[in-house]
Amino acid sequence: MYGQLKNKSYLPRLLDKRIAEDLEVFGAVCIQGPKYCGKTWTGRSFANSEISLLDPSGGFQNRELAELAPSVALQGASPRLIDEWQEVPSLWDAVRNEIDQTGKLSTFVLTGSAVPRESKPRHSGVGRIEKLKMRPVTLQESGDSTAEVSLRGLFEGVCAPVQGSRDNTWGTCSSGGARWMAGVASVC
């Protein structure tokens, strides 16, 4: 069971299903994305323990521990969240090694908004750590859209009429984006 650290106000993300699947297949996922897009909260929703490398407690003692003894920083209930892993790039290789040693019994969620500053990991992580890109919260995830209409669908000619619009005829696109755009102009 995972997710003992899940925040009560966590909004499920479109990426959640993929994270769950990839944890089973690879043993670790690395959630990358811009600052403040929800990487840490999403990671916590799958984690049973965590270490934050940017926690200022004790003069950034977690980061110091990870630098001195990466294997000790990995200890904790699985899946273990390693927040801002890029602060100590050697953790990448330590996670890969732990997955190899335990046969995926130890699982990890790594989060980070940047690539390692100085040294880079020695191993790509292929077959052990799946890299996933997280974007800011979508309108669908926030509940502000039903996602019945997608931009891809609009430009591929697959449209649904907008409820409550004065003119639903534009909703059946046959020639893609150009007709859709004309329809938007007539509705606005």
TrEMBL record:
Q: Which PANTHER family match?
A: CONSERVED PROTEIN (PTHR43566), DUF4143 DOMAIN-CONTAINING PROTEIN (PTHR43566:SF2)
Q: Name its species.
A: Rubneribacter badeniensis
Question: Boundaries of each AAA domain copy?
Answer: 28-141
The protein depicted here goes by the name AAA domain-containing protein
> Entry's InterPro entries?
AAA_14 (IPR041682)
Pfam families xref list: AAA_14
